[in-house]
Design goal:
It contains eleven helices and 15 strands. With about 350 residues, the protein is α/β, with parallel strands linked by helices. The protein has two domains: about 230 residues, D-Maltodextrin-Binding Protein, domain 2, CATH 3.40.190.10; about 100 residues, 3-Layer(aba) Sandwich (D-Maltodextrin-Binding Protein, domain 2). Pfam families: SBP_bac_3 (PF00497).
């Protein structure tokens, strides 16, 4: 997440599916039934099983890689459990993390990847749900080993945490499927277009900067704001706007929802949430110096190399956020934009 605002835009811009209540500790256990809902026999993880249409259920056979699990911190290896925390309370943010169609299981791209990583490490996933703030409290206190929750790698966060990157942090343009327009990574292609964006978000900041540049070049970009996502989608299908600029996972989710409708949509292109000079990265987050980030990165690289990472992304329509490899503490958002 580039900033708190961009995450708020993601949550606000995606349909909430279920409310939940946090315990006094700030973490709600989602192990047991939740993990059983997405983990079959030993070594098999079903991605998107209870996703309520947000993903294509995909069964993946994953076995422990002992050369990777041997590098785990002793406390984690001996426990046999990877304590994972996700910051999806109270409402969740599909398709990344939310309560599934069984009304109890924490599902989505983030917890599913966590389960895949745990399988490579030969550990049982124990997943807890928390508010965004309490997720970090859980990591700080040791109640959780690691966070998987659309957390952006920033230089500010590196003061307290280590990262293992696994997905690009992208914004995206949603357009009607019949539209011939594409962003193609060039703001100049927005000239003469009308684009909707949510108020107070990172994507609004970027879009307004492009609007200023185009105005200086004698060109016009019309920016629209609507009261909510439904109103924005109606404006798109009604031809009042050319595109909707928002968090890419939310757009991927809505594209899947509209696929069978009279007005299907598609991606018109993506842009780094960190801006033009840096590719933002989403990363698994551990307490600084815990020794867990490297084996987690190696587990992700193993999933990338054997093709299961690509299947995980494809299941959630997030293939355009793929990374070539997992990096430990790669360059993050600078301190003046963290």
């Amino acid at each position: 997440m580039p900033t708190l605002l961009s995450r708020r835009g993601l949550i606000r811009g995606i349909t909430a599916v279920a409310a939940a209540t946090t315990l006094a500790t700030g973490l709600t256990a989602c192990g047991g039934d939740s993990d059983a809902a997405t983990t079959d026999t030993a070594g098999t993880v079903t991605v998107g099983r209870v996703s309520n249409g947000a993903a294509t259920p995909t069964e993946l056979k994953v076995t422990e890689v002992k050369s990777i699990s041997a590098a785990l911190p002793e406390s984690v290896r001996s426990s046999g459990t990877l304590k994972i925390v996700v910051g999806a309370l109270p409402d969740g943010f599909p398709p990344l993390a939310y309560v599934g169609s069984d009304q109890k299981s924490l599902t989505g791209a983030e917890p599913d990847l966590a389960r895949l990583v745990a399988a490579v490490l030969g550990l049982r996933p124990e997943i807890s749900n928390a508010t965004w703030e309490n997720m970090f409290v859980g990591i700080d206190s040791g109640r959780a080993d690691i966070g998987f929750s659309n957390i952006t790698d920033t230089e500010e966060r590196k003061k307290k945490y280590d990262f293992a990157s696994y997905r690009k942090d992208n914004l995206g343009f949603e357009v009607l499927k019949k539209s011939t327009w594409n962003f193609d990574g060039d703001y100049r292609n927005l000239a003469g277009r009308t684009v909707a964006v949510d108020n107070g978000t990172n994507q609004e900041k970027i879009l307004l900067e492009w609007q200023t540049k185009l105005k200086q070049e004698g060109k016009q970009l019309t920016v629209k704001h609507y009261a909510g996502k439904n109103a924005t989608h109606l404006a798109l299908t009604g031809g009042k706007i050319d595109a909707y600029f928002s968090a890419n996972p939310g757009i991927a989710y809505h594209i899947r929802q509209t696929a069978a409708s009279p007005d299907p949509t598609r991606s018109g292109g993506t842009f780094s949430g960190a801006g033009a000079t840096l590719q933002g990265l989403i990363a698994a987050t551990t307490k600084k110096g815990s020794g867990l980030a490297r084996p987690v990165a190696d587990a992700i690289d193993h999933l990338i190399e054997n093709g299961q990472y690509a299947k995980w992304l494809a299941a959630y329509n997030l293939s355009d956020e793929a990374v070539a490899k997992s990096e430990v503490n790669p360059p993050g958002l600078p301190l003046d934009n963290s």
